[in-house]
Task: structure prediction
Amino acid sequence: MNFHVLTLFPEMILQGLDTSIIGRAMAKNIITLEAVNIRDYTTNKHKKVDDYPYGGGAGMLMQAQPVYDAWKAVVEKINAGKGKKPRVIYLTPQGKTFRQSMAREFAEEENLIFLCGHYEGIDERVLEEIVTDYVSIGDYVLTGGELPTMVMIDAISRMVPGVLSNKESGESESFSNYLLEYPQYSRPEIWHEKRVPEVLLSGDHKKVEEWRLEQSLERTRKARSDLYEKWVEENQDYFIKKAKKEARQRKKEQKKKAASEKNTCIL
Ligand code: ADE
Result:
């Protein structure tokens, strides 16, 4: 997977992604990251890349020419005249909201180009010509597209085979099945007078799995009822099995109670 970022602040991108798991994946060449300075492509002799918007209004706009030429240089380098054009993601609050399913889909691409806007945005004409995907990372406004780009590159990279070790694998995590993650504990067993839940020390894997699923469900129900409902819809059998198990348990307890009452009468 090769990421290409068109930006006015290349050092922000390179420094922001150079550590931890993503840094390791880059060192291993599983992913590559190139940050292209849009300013290097302006034909303006003062290196200007922005101007006032026609019709008036607050702030400045990034002009079409440097953005287009930076994009063209990257595409020509990738394609060397062949193959399909890579997808171009423009980060904007007006875009489709970024989700795990999108991260998975983008992870299938060989090349991705990110376009980071600044100031009040970018001249619409160049967006129309080069952008394939308009993406937002949430309902708030940031000062530029660099942080959203880093968020997306991080989330997409995790889905690229070989980036996570088996131990770190994304499969059992939040959103892979709509559920938020269960709470986790490490040593010591008691910290600030708080005990690790007994079931996790029991060594009973089945019980641990059941407890974790219950915790996940409860967390999701409380924090994200939208996700919880989706899970419920797709996992009706879980509730049927649970109800049957509880009914069996109740019956067993009733039998036990009846037997002990009988014993008491005989005595
Ligand atoms: N640029 C500014 N705010 C943004 C957001 N919320 N998502 C993506 N790009 C942005």
